[in-house]
Amino acid sequence: MKARIKQSVTLLLAAGIGFAAAGAAYSAESLQDVMKRRNISQQDLLAAAKTYVPTGKRDEFVVFSSGGQSGQVIVYGIPSMRILKYLAVFTPEPWQGYGFDENSKAVLRQGNIDGKEINWGDTHHPAISETDGKYDGQYLFINDKANPRLAVIDLRDFETKQIVVNPIFKSEHGGAFVTPNTDYIFEAAQYAAPLENKKFYPLEEFNEKYRGGMTYWKFDRKEGRIDAKKSFSVELPPYSQDLSDAGKGPSDGWSFTNSFCSERYVGGIEKGRPPYEAGCSAKDTDYLHVINWKKAAELVAAGKAKKINGHDVLMMETAIKEGILFLVPEPKSPHGVDVTPDGKFMIVAGKLDTHVSVYSFEKIQAAIKAGKFESHDPYGIPVIGMKDALDKQVQLGLGPLHTQYDSKPCLAYTSLYVDSQVAKWNYCEGKVVDKLSVHYNIGHLMSMEGDSVDPKGRYLVALNKLAIDRFVPVGPLHPQNHQLIDISNDKMQLLYDMPLPLGEPHYAVAIEATKLKPGVRYKVGTDSRTDKPHPGAVRAGEEVTTKKGNKVEVKGTLIRSHITPETIEVDVGDEVTIHLTNLERAQDETHGFTVSTYNVHASIEPGKTVTVKFKADKEGVYPYYCTEFCSALHLEMQGYLLVKPKGWKPTKTTLAAGSYTEADYKATVKKVADTQAIIDSVVAYITSVNYKDFPDVVAMVEDAFDQLGKTKGLKEKHEGFAAKKDWENANLWAEQIWQYQVKTADLGLRAKTYLEQNGAKKVAK
Ligand code: K7E
Ligand code: CUA
Q1: Nearest atom, ligand 2, residue 563 CA
Q2: How far is the CA of 633 from the centre of ligand 2 (A)?
Q3: The model's pTM
């Protein structure tokens, strides 16, 4: 221990004074040498140059990808394809404490269905909040297909704030999609089921009793939460509603939803009936659902909805009568419907058709106005003739699924699942301009802000379903493969294969990195899951442990490098609640907290307050500690939970002590003086240059002085003990000054290096 401190002083001194080790001489390989050795072509090199983000530089775009069955969201950068974070949404995630502390558990448990805890989700479609149809970078939404739920993630801190359970569906897939000003986030049911909860109807009553639907969740932007009371649904036939999109520009106020299995076929392979896949693709067409959601919202507000499970549902009968619901045939088992950036067309891709169908919003409106319908479906919904709604059909290839848009007008990219290709085509002229093979079986694809009114072009990502031969084998379960494609030129160029070790991603959205402005710290004492002051928060010096009956409540703090309190004593059987506030203001100074064997963990970022709770049901000794390597003395950031047996009485009342001498004390005092000299020299350097022009440095300097400020009063304290010849206390309090100095010096040296590397200039004194 002492040896280590001595070593770190030496290191500190060396760094402060600036001994730089000279680089060893070696013969450098040329670029040509490397290309030859690694068998890299000019084309590879170009791709590498387009994706490489040198150290210290940042990506241009940030992607939020669905994490599929992981129930999470994956965040990565473009063009580097480096993974930045997994966002915990429907599934516990221990690093972030999600599901292991009380505050995040409260969010996770909002997703309970009928009191059942659900600890996973099947996330499909993320959506970024929009203002005037453009991504605004404030919120992210994502659906859970398996358990019909929707989550709200705040992009100020990238944390899940809310989960809402769909009150009438049993599965949902066509969501999340946002309206152009994020008034509503909507989702479509997938597999039809009775809308009333816990109602049983046999499959023989499928046509009469099973239903699909669309739910429009009202988003309260001021609160940053969905307002379930102001949300509503529209009842739809049991047609297996699928992907959807919101109208924009001229089509704002309308939503469009595909369907498959409008045959309403019910399988039964075990009874010798042909399976779903046969019965669900028998017809040549399915239905595009066209809904006037703005009018629907007005009708609901006017009291025309029926309450089902306490939720407003506009029934089909009302929707038909009020003229807000229409169907248009679409070929065959379609998947994606994607509204063009100008809002004039809806492009539908039919999985079993080689064409994409471009529907005209203008033509659909004309047919509605003229009352020109070719028929009505079995539920009485007016059906607009396909030819009356179509602008054109374009043959692209096998298995078209999803479409995204370019910044250049009329250009679209459609994924071809069966062909394993991306088709680049012009929807104004109706012709294919380029095709590129991907590896393999592409599902969704994504261009930069490519589903907004203002796509950014440049890059496209192919979200492939199969990776087969792309990566080093890791067992039968292969990684996912996201491929980055350069679309800035006439010909598409494949740039990069990224194996994703979490899946299966369905859709992803990419936003310009500069639009995201997440914070680096919370206001001290914030519950990050409610965005409100945490009732268990305390400031330094206010830490307290109380006991009422068998309930022990600890209000503690964390700062480099100690946890207050360092001992928690309880009786066996006590319910223990520990609230911890991270007092740090420094960027990235997160502390973690866990107690041995009690299955609790918290990630406590600067300013945050988090609660962990457990029943101390076994007597014994349980170390607790900080789980983030937060400082040189991180390992010492520790304490003991002592769970005492019933009726236990102490026999010994003094703690085991170290034995320090006057010489130890003097050595510590000298160390403190030497370190202060380093700090002074670093401060002299920093203030001699234009450090105020570097916001990151200003923050580091602030944090450094914050640390140094904590030494106040400690000098008097150690000198007081020294006067009484209490060398133990004198030495340890002097040592504590040095602890703060080390953190100050560390920040100061980091600031100095930053300034030197970023061309700081001398300023006149
Ligand atoms: Cu996998 Cu959008 Cu759910 Cu298509 S979805 S591939
Ligand atoms: Cu705090 Cu390690």
Answers
A1: 1
A2: 8
A3: 0.91
Pairing relationship of beta strands 311-314 and 306-308 according to DSSP bridges: antiparallel
Minimum-distance ligand 1 atom for the alpha carbon of 66: 3
Longest CA–CA span in the chain (Å) reads: 101
**Per-residue confidence (pLDDT) for residue 25, from 0 to 100:** 54
Which residue in the block uniquely carries the two structure tokens 């070790």? 501
How far apart, in Å, do the first and last CA atoms of the chain sit? 43
Tell how far the Cα of 173 is from the centroid of ligand 1, in angstroms: 8
Burial of 525 (0-12, 13-18, 19+ CB in 10 A): buried
Q: Count of CB atoms within 10 A of residue 117's CB? A: 11
The rounded Å distance from CA 541 to ligand 2 centre is: 19
In this structure, which amino acid lies at residue 451?
A: D
652 pLDDT band, cuts 50/70/90, is: confident
Average pLDDT value over all residues in the chain: 94
pLDDT tens-digit readout, 399-434: 999 999 999 999 999 999 999 999 999 999 999 999
Index of the ligand 2 atom closest to the CA of residue 634: 2
Of 20-24, 105-109, 476-480, 672-676, minimum mean pLDDT range: 20-24
Count, in order, helices (H) and strands (E) of the chain: 14, 44
Q: What's the 172 CA to ligand 1 centre distance in angstroms?
A: 12
458 C-beta closer than 6 A to ligand 2: no
591 lines ligand 2 (CB under 6 A): yes
Ligand 1 pocket, residues with Cβ under 6 angstroms: 124-125, 173, 243, 335, 401-402, 443-444, 506-507
Ligand nearest to the CA of 560: 2
Q: For the residues 455-476, what does the mean pLDDT come to?
A: 97
At residue 654, the pLDDT reads 78
Residue ranges of the domains in the chain? 182-213+223-263+272-395, 526-644, 662-757
Distance 465 CA to ligand 1 centre (A): 10
Q: Is 49 helix (H, G, I), strand (E, B) or coil?
A: helix
How far, in Å, is the centroid of ligand 2 from the Cα of 582? 10
Q: Whole-angstrom Cα distance, residue 186 to residue 304?
A: 20
Closest atom of ligand 1 to 463 CA is 6
pLDDT of 526 higher than 50: yes
Confidence of residue 732 (pLDDT cuts 50, 70, 90): very high
Residue whose tokens read 């294969």: 497
**Among 122, 123, 240, 402, residue to substitute to test ligand 1 (most atoms within 8 Å of Cβ):** 402
Whole-number Å distance between alpha carbons of 611 and 106: 11
Distance CA 338, CA 404 (A): 7
User: 257-306, pLDDT tens digit by residue?
Assistant: 999 999 999 999 999 999 998 899 888 899 999 999 999 999 999 999 99
**2.60.40.10, 2.60.40.420, 2.30.42.10, 1.10.1200.10: which CATH number matches 526-644?**
2.60.40.420
Mean pLDDT of 572-577: 98
> Which residues does residue 577 pair with via DSSP β-bridges, in sequence order?
553, 613
Instruction: Please compute the mean of the pLDDT values over residues 60-84 and round it to a whole number.
Output: 98
Q: What is the DSSP letter of 695?
A: H
Contacts with 547 (C-beta within 8 Å, 6 or more apart), sequence order: 553, 570, 574
Output the residue whose Cα is nearest ligand 1's atom 1. Answer: 506
Q: What is the mean pLDDT of residues 736-759?
A: 90
Domain 182-213+223-263+272-395 falls in which CATH fold?
Methylamine Dehydrogenase; Chain H (2.130.10)
The DSSP string of 416-482 is ETTTTEEEEEETTTTEEEEEEE-SS-EEEEEEETTTSSS--EEEEEEEES--TTSS---SSSPPEEE
Q: Does 348 contact ligand 2 (Cβ within 6 A)? A: no
